[in-house]
Amino acid sequence: MRPDETAFVRFDGVEKSYDGRTLVVRRLDLDIARGEFLTLLGPSGSGKTTCLMMLAGFEPVTRGEIYLEGRPLSRVPPHRRDIGMVFQNYALFPHMTVAENLAFPLEVRRLGRAEIETRVRRALEMVRLAGFEHRRPAQLSGGQQQRVALARALVFEPRLVLMDEPLGALDKQLRENMQYELKRLHERLGITVVYVTHDQGEALTMSDRVAVFEAGRIRQLATPQRLYEEPENAFVARFIGENNTFRGRIRAREGRFCRVTVEGGGEMLALPVAVREPGEATTLSLRPERVWLDPPEGAVENRFVGRVVEPVYHGDHLRLVLEVCGNREFVVKVPNRPGTRWPTPGETLRVGWRAEDLRALDPA
Prior knowledge:
- The protein has helices at 48-56, 98-108, 113-126, 142-154, 172-189, 200-206, 224-229, 234-239; strands at 9-17, 23-32, 37-41, 63-68, 71-72, 83-87, 160-164, 192-197, 209-214, 217-222, 244-254, 257-262, 267-272, 281-286, 292-293, 302-313, 317-324, 327-335, 348-353, 359-361.
- It has 364 residues and is of the alpha+beta class.
- The mean pLDDT is 92.
- The radius of gyration is 25 Å and the shape is globular.
């Protein structure tokens, strides 16, 4: 690594194999900026947790190198990497009080008693648990235990904090509240966080950037907004959020768009993203909220008739499942406003969408 490189963390050609044959991480090149909240997102077995464990030092790198502030880590043991860790199961010592749990990493580093007490008090205030010093983990709620685990990872002021599915054991409402807590804490402290999850909502809510993993490779690395609005391939479009998809083949180019013949019947005008030439197979991707019901003439390039399969009430919106161009799982999300009419199964509706909202991706 050259001295002028500015990446805080760098994966340089990193590969990992457990059996010497199968690669679970494949030629990974990734730079993480100082102060960034980067999420590694992907399904089980995609390699995201393995990357975190290699960065922490709990798994050796098979090939390549990982750098922290320009320093190669391959020969640095985990306890000398100055990295905080937060796990899904919290990993708190049940026989210790909250204060003793937080003091443990400081005692290992041989800090003085007065300094330890100051840092423990400051860490508890940071996670809004002042006054809980003498409780044991069993006397805390799940959310409180998670805050203690976070405080313990931060109390020794690490350069980097790694989080492996830290909210996975919490119920839905508490998990959502903790997402905002973590985001605010990151913004206030300016720490560098590498976060692993398979929950796309967590990734979109908290991250500066998200790396979407599949089969040991990053399929797309971008901001949450760009991942959702501009997926570069069918896997990312399918994994991030809900999508309507059609299979088809490019018939012709029309300016910045392409005309696609759809397998279920009909033709659509789409934005070519991962395909270029006439004759190429493609997967078309369209977000449900980009669909118009009964669009006015000239407002959209793509207009079709859909048959209602199932209307589903979701409180703040109606989720209509339609059959459109052979796709019997075509979803439209309609805001639940006063006067919104409920369509009935079997009813036909006019639907439409803009060509720029329909993305022509690879034929996966």
